[in-house]
Amino acid sequence: MRSSWLAASLILVVVLIGWIGVRHEASAELQRGLAHFRANLPPGATFSYDRAYPRLLARGAGFTNVRFVNGETIVTASSLTVNNPSGVVSTGLHLSKVHAQDLHIEGDRSVDVKSITLTGLELPAIGADTEPVTDLPDASLLKFRSGKVAHFHLTDSNLGCEAEIAAVNLDNYARHQGGAYSLKDANFHCEHSPIPSLIKIPNASDAMAGHVDDLHGSGIDLALNMERLEQDATPSSDLRSEPQNSAGELSNAWFTQGNLRIDLPHMKNRYSGTGHIVNAYVELDGVRVSRDQQALVPALASGGPAHIVIDSSIDTQAHTAHSMENIDVPTLASMEIMLDLDHLPDGNGAPQAWMNMRIVRINIGYHDISLIDRLLHHQAEKQQISPEQLREQIALGGAVATAALPGLAAIPAYIVHPDGRTIQLTLAPPEPMSVLEFGSKYHWRNLQAQPELVQPPALTVDIH
């Protein structure tokens, strides 16, 4: 469903048709062009200003204290200038430069912008020469060479959200083009999270907030992502719709939901490939997760920030993926996960479609440095027993639990005495399983009836 504030943000651009037909610098020609524009406004819409004047050297026009009203949408600006208009509404307009100062948009959402400048702007065809303008183009249909926004502020009273961005730059904005973007000093806060949470935290507030010092990237189809926002969808993750080489980088970010906080000092990603093979790489450095400014798990407090690398190869034609994840937490532990998947959904498939993708093979390698020992000591303190007594309990309970599942017997033995070793688990179900089926099949109760699922060759466990 189209968001009216997004369409409204284009109105100040569309008012440029106020001087369509102006090919001379005389004020009389400008006034005739404005009269033509008013006559073609949508029913009930009004456009007013304190002053309109031709800009001789720029072959354009300027306005002061502009006000556009269309239903519940109100757009105002202290000044608006346009350079070198060409073309007509029915076939598309081209404007070499548009600049608005103190822009305010009031509608479903409220937007304030200190200044916005677009260069090389192209508008799509609107209506026909003999028909009035009854609708405005979506932002995803625009094209422009460069866009600069200073001091952006958004308020959405429906979601209880506010966002502020000090500066935004967009280059090469158009469908099926590799655009570039940069964002500086961004902050947001929502009383209720607008993003469905996959992890429900008991007794935690739903409020969400975040900050990003710097975010920039290139090779992204910016207009495609704008189209999805207009449709109230999530930004595109359909790798086939993106240019095949793109990259992005984020610096000094943090995000909170309730009392849970994630600190992310640095993240970078890149996509590359040819044809239907896409390589995706994501690296996160310095990750910390905390609750109420304390380590999420007390045993993690002594560990350094985590370093995470995800390296994937995706076949968008065969709908398969091979992914490798490396997680390293200094002084505590490291983990390597290799995952083979098939039946990947197309593009931005619905959540149900993603749950139907199938797990072909999983390989997990865990190397313990001190994490298990710290966890055991913490749990022993809570139970007011010694760590050795807790180890004895785990060994006994593990032996009973795995009596009917001998393929898992090595796991509790490793937990009791990891001794700096690595445990390797390789899971290859007899047939690929969907995510939903995997959760059901590998439930503890089901394994009692199907122990072969955790025995060779379906599951192998190696400790070294």
Distance between the termini: 56 Å
Whole-number tally of structural domains:
3
How many strand units?
21
What is the helical fraction, as a range of percent?
A: 10-25%
- Roughly what is the average pLDDT, rounded to an integer? 82
Supply the number of helical segments.
10
| Unreliable sequence segments | 1-26
Q: Report the principal-axis shape.
A: elongated
Beta-strand content: over 45%
What structural category characterises the helix and strand content? alpha+beta
Calculate Rg over CA atoms: 29 Å
* Biggest sheet details: 21 strands, antiparallel
Q: Secondary-structure blueprint of this entry?
A:
Elements: H1 4-8, H2 11-14, H3 27-39, E1 46-48, E2 51-55, E3 60-70, E4 73-88, E5 92-106, E6 110-123, E7 144-156, E8 161-173, E9 179-190, E10 208-220, H4 222-230, E11 246-257, E12 260-274, E13 277-291, E14 294-295, E15 306-315, E16 320-329, E17 333-342, H5 351-355, E18 358-368, H6 371-383, H7 387-401, H8 410-416, E19 422-427, E20 433-434, H9 435-441, H10 444-449, E21 459-463
Antiparallel strand pairs: 1-3, 2-3, 3-4, 4-5, 5-6, 6-7, 7-8, 8-9, 9-10, 10-11, 11-12, 12-13, 13-14, 13-15, 15-16, 16-17, 17-18, 18-19, 18-20, 19-21
Helix pairs in contact: 6-7, 7-8
